[in-house]
Amino acid sequence: MFSIDIAQRRARLAIRHRLVASARSSDPVDIARSMVVLHATDPATVFLSVGARGTDLTPADVEKALYDDRALVRMLAMRRTMFVAPTELLPVLQASTCDALAHKQRRTYGRYIEQAGVVDGDISSWLADVEAETHAALLTRGAATGVQLSKDVPRLRTQIDTAPGKSYSKPTSITTWVLVVLGAEGRIVRGRPNGSWTSSQYTWAPVETWLPQGFSPLPAAQARVELVRQWLRTFGPAPITDLKWWTGWTLGEVRKALAELDTVDVDLDGTPGLILADDLDPVPTPEPWAALLPALDPTPMGWQSRAWFLGPHAPALFDTNGNIGPSIWADGRIVGGWAQRPDGEVVTRLLEDVGTDTEKLIDAEIARTTTWFGEVRAIPRFRTPLQRELTA
Fold first, then answer.
1. Which residues contact 234 (CB under 8 A, 6 or more apart)?
2. How far apart are CA 294 and CA 49, in angstroms?
3. Mean pLDDT over residues 169-187, rounded?
4. Mean pLDDT of the 96-124 span
């Protein structure tokens, strides 16, 4: 069996993920394409992920790509996770993942509404009517927040208790549910946030006006093949379990997509993996490099099996839900963590000895990250043990 060692995997990571200086880009869309998608659960992650891989870029360049050029689009996709994707990938994500997600979420919300007993008649028809009315209201407004739409569509203010009788019970309106389903179906789009690039309070826009060029639908099977191909190009070689985890699909769906691609079985230091058949040539070892990657960056979140770049550092850098915090990288492995303090200072801690030359590279990345933040202070969406210590 063809073998690929850790050193080669780290070399591919450095170059294909644009973390080594010679591979960085001045185009936010190009950077997003390199990663397939950018993780966007925390809005700041998108901007910091681009900043870590960019040259001569500022947050304003990312905002331009998102909201003016609309070459990037924010959407709920794999594993019901928020991503920012190149707009041309939208048909692939829609057919491979989002259509099924919309169906699942509508079914889940419908059960909650039925259990609450607040609607007479067929729940599916009632919910479809609310969705249509919300979409029409958004077409009229052009752009709106959920609060504004709930004033136009009174049924959005319907209160549902999803955990009646529980101590944590809290009735909530169905506004977010309806917007999530419409977004997953590709009928509406998350637009500009109400605030800085770290804000998660978005306005919504109908896809008809946000992307007037539209997009041609794809068969789901074809879309899955294309998404798998792109993932293998960026994250391969890798075990099939990593691909299954990243996509959130069933193992059968993953295997069916792989069957349409020309792949080669490889040995990854004792673990079976896959690689595209035209990607066997080794990648040259890059120059020494360092990077400060944000929480939930797409590089560490690209694989489920992370020992080959994470080492023993998971307890310090991950929270109890499996979210990775800000990490320091050197030559293809994680060597520490970082955080931004309330006064704006970027503080770090190395978890292993890296040598003087690497420390100088890390210092340069600290300066780049500090400049990228400017006057903005990013409030973490979750806290990891090391991040807590650094900001105490």
1. 16, 17, 34, 35, 36, 302
2. 6
3. 94
4. 94
Backbone angles phi, psi at 234, to 5 degrees: -90, -40
6 touches 238 (CB < 8 A):
no
Q: What is the rounded radius of gyration, in angstroms, for the C-alpha atoms of the chain?
A: 22
- Could you tell me where the beta strands, DSSP code E, fall in the chain? 2-3, 38-39, 72-76, 82-86, 159-160, 172-173, 188-193, 202-206, 263-268, 271-276, 290-293, 327-330, 333-340, 346-350
Q: Which pair of structure tokens corresponds to residue 38?
A: 């950018």
Res. 215: pLDDT tops 90: no
| pLDDT value of position 259 | 98
Nearest to 298 by CA among 89, 109, 83: 83
User: How far is it between the farthest Cα atoms of the chain?
Assistant: 71
Q: How far apart are CA 111 and CA 108, in angstroms?
A: 5
In angstroms, how far is the first alpha carbon of the chain from the final one?
50
pLDDT at 379 over 90: no
Whole-number Å distance between alpha carbons of 99 and 37? 18
Amino acid residing at 11: A
